[in-house]
Amino acid sequence: MNGTTILIFLVCISLVAALFIAALSRHKKGGTGELKLIGARATVEKSLTPEGYIIVRGEMWPARARTGETLEAGSPVIVVGASGHLLLVEPDSTHRA
Fold first, then answer.
1. Element (H, E) at 83
2. DSSP letters of 59-81?
3. Which residues does 28 contact at the CB level (< 8 Å), separation at least 6?
4. What's the pTM?
5. pLDDT digits (tens, 9 = 90+) for 44-74
6. DSSP string for 32-58
7. Where are the domains of the chain?
8. How far is CA 39 from CA 18, 36, 87, in A?
9. Are 90 and 77 in contact (CB under 8 A)?
10. Rounded CA gap, 8 and 14, in Å?
11. What is the pLDDT of residues 7-22, one digit of tens each?
12. Which residues, listed in sequence order, are joined to residue 83 by a DSSP beta bridge?
């Protein structure tokens, strides 16, 4: 093989690799995003006055009571929305102690 053939081969391999990587990145599975947590049950970790922290799916997230009310630590809540990385929650009325 001469130098031109090798160069063309390397360019083709590079293009195929770039297209493969681009295709994979479009189908990349995201992490636990805020929107994926809507509807999830959680527990207040640090009282929401109105902002604090909750534990949802084993992770701690900053949260705020949607209505601005105070929710004490240990209270069951449901994630109803998100504002950036801040989750919006409401008391979980279906929880039975």
1. strand 76-83
2. EEEEEEETT---B-TT-EEEEEE
3. none
4. 0.64
5. 999 999 899 999 999 999 999 999 999 999 9
6. S-TGGGTT-EEEEEE-BSSEEEEEETT
7. 1-30, 35-91
8. 38, 8, 11
9. yes
10. 10
11. 999 999 998 888 888 7
12. 86
Kindly state the tokens that stand for 95: 């929880």
CA gap 43, 31 in Å, rounded:
21
Q: Is residue 90 within 8 Å of residue 69, measured between CB atoms?
A: no
Query: Which two structure tokens, joined as six digits, stand for 42?
Result: 């959680």
35-91 in CATH: which number?
2.40.50.140
Phi and psi at 23, nearest 5°, equal -65, -40
Predicted confidence at residue 54, as pLDDT, reads: 98
- Distance of alpha carbon 42 from alpha carbon 52, whole angstroms: 13
| Structure tokens given for 72 | 């004490």
Q: What is the pLDDT of residue 27?
A: 57
Write the single-letter amino acid at 94: T
